Amino acid sequence: MNAPGASPQFAPDAVSVIKALQALRQGSPTQPGYWEQVASSLRFLCRATSVWVVRQAGTDGAVGRLHGDWLLIGQSSDSTSAEFDVRWLEELTTLVPRAEGKGFAVGPGTTAAGLSVYRVVVRLEHTAASYALLDIPQRERANLNELVLRAQLVADLPGDLSPVPPRPGVTPAPAPASYAPVPAPVAAAAGQGGGAVPPQVPAIVGGAADGAMPPSAAAALPGTQTIHVPLADLLDLASQAMRQQHSGGAQLTIVNGLAAFTGAAQVAFGWSDHGYVRASTISHLDRFEHHSELVEYTESALDESLEYEFALRSPALPGEPVFAAQDRLRDEQGFRHVCAMSLRRGLEPAPGAVLIAHADDRTVDDATLANIRMMFDLTVPWLLDLRDREKWWGKRLRDWTAVRLGALVGPQHVWLKALGVAFGLFALYATFATWDYRVNGGGQLTTDSTRLISASFEGRVDTANVTSGDLVREGDVLSMLDTRELRQQESDARAEIRRYAAEADKARASAAWAEVEIATARQQQADARLARVLDMIEQSTSRAPFDGVVVEGERKDLLGAPVRKGDKMFKLARIEGLYVVVTVPERDMPLITPAATGELVLVSRPDVKIPLRVIAVIPVAQTKGQDGNQFMVRAEVQQAPEAWWRPGMSGAVRIDAGEKNVAWILTHRLVDKLRLMLWW
């Protein structure tokens, strides 16, 4: 329903809305129809189809009709028969938590009549657990951000249940019972004006109201009206901004508040960064592109004000200097009056600047500018601290370091100066200091005490007991060949020996001495075959000839494999007598001296450094693919072998080449390469 006595067919003009809001600010919620007037003002101000003011049930002092967990305390609609839309009850569960954090929340919705609208929830700041619910039609999509900002500007209306004391010297106006109908053209202008400028609540317009400050110099321009904003209102705006949790929200609260108080079409605020102002916040815009024409002109005007301690105005009075950036912004964007001032305090660098632009014949007076400067004097340190806390920790560390270095080397070009000093000190150090230079290469543990274990006859491997890497003791069985066939040959040989022995005895009993000799010879042949078979059976078992480690031979490859006589099965190496074969690049070979010391780090144990001493240099280069020519250097290990060492282990080697100049160490390879490229 509408406010009492409101006419549903006419919309109020902007002046009526402003007067109604002024009356509500001076009034009290205890007055009859207060919340109905709030709902009606919000509906016309935000071009909504319906507005409801609700409070959570159980809040002390709340009265109204109950809808679920909510009390309806005021409403206004463009239809006299409209009731509370119960669909809101479901959407409040998601929109209210968001409105608690940001002050407002927006979501799509559909009314009971099937009309697509934007559901807007605005938190009322001075009323506990209370919210304004707005249905804004889809046709206002382009102006949605502005309409939400309008609702937020009204969200600080008095909301406690006690009367609000009037300001000294100001007589509160009674709350109007209704809005007076206005002609249709005026209503259309108020309702469809495009939303370029939100409704303003100036304290004094044109310098003619009660308590007006003396007119400023801007009033000397023909037809110009000045606006004065009391310091108390600006301090109240500062307190509202300081309740924000983020610097962006606080700055947006300030510029939107200034736009409302001064009736400005645009209020912009920017921070000074290295002597240039970058726009941080622009009224009525929650985001903007820095490369847009409007923002570029605004930043130029803000930057222009940094050079002066007084406010710059455009158009200028006769005889006063003309400021090009101000005039360009005014001409290109269609403003009538532009005023910009730096937030300078004495001789300190200005932290930023603020700009106020009007699209009509109004402008702020000098007293208001002084009040605005005082407000920023209070809020800027807090905003800077909040802004610094929101930065990434790396940027905070960079800024902290820049400040400390600035105190040492000067306020300008801090990083360049610090880098130059550091480079100069290092160049001086590199010219005279020396470092221990080491030649890098690859190394491998090697031993000359090795033994190949091969197959003694043709056959098949029946047993393999070791594999690569196993430690063995002298006499340990390494492998066994299959001896079943040899055992059969042994049985045959023994049988022949017995048979020939019996034939010899029989011939001897018959005195057949020739037969005795033949049988005896055959028995000796069988004995020889038996001895050979027994020797092969003994050789079928391979044993370790010394204590060492198996460096070649895999159990899985040998089991059941056929072998020929002489085939290699295992390779054993002694752990004693290990030495290191080092490969050194050709370019570093002249730096290697006999008896030079160094260190070996194996891949398997990079935490253990093994001391070395060069004992021989092989003077023949070997080519190893893309690595180029490599020289082999033999080095002995300067400590007792460890149990975990194995021949063939590889790693990195560093050989001491003596002390060298630091500059030479850092540049000698580049110099050598240039010499090869530029020789003639």
Automatic annotation (TrEMBL):
Coiled coil keyword on record: yes
A GO term from the CC aspect: cell envelope
Keyword Translocase: no
Keywords: Coiled coil
Record-linked InterPro entries: UPF0194_transport
Main localisation: other
Localization (cell): Cell envelope
Protein name: HlyD family efflux transporter periplasmic adaptor subunit
Source organism per UniProt: Pigmentiphaga litoralis
Top-level taxonomy: Bacteria, Pseudomonadati, Pseudomonadota, Betaproteobacteria, Burkholderiales
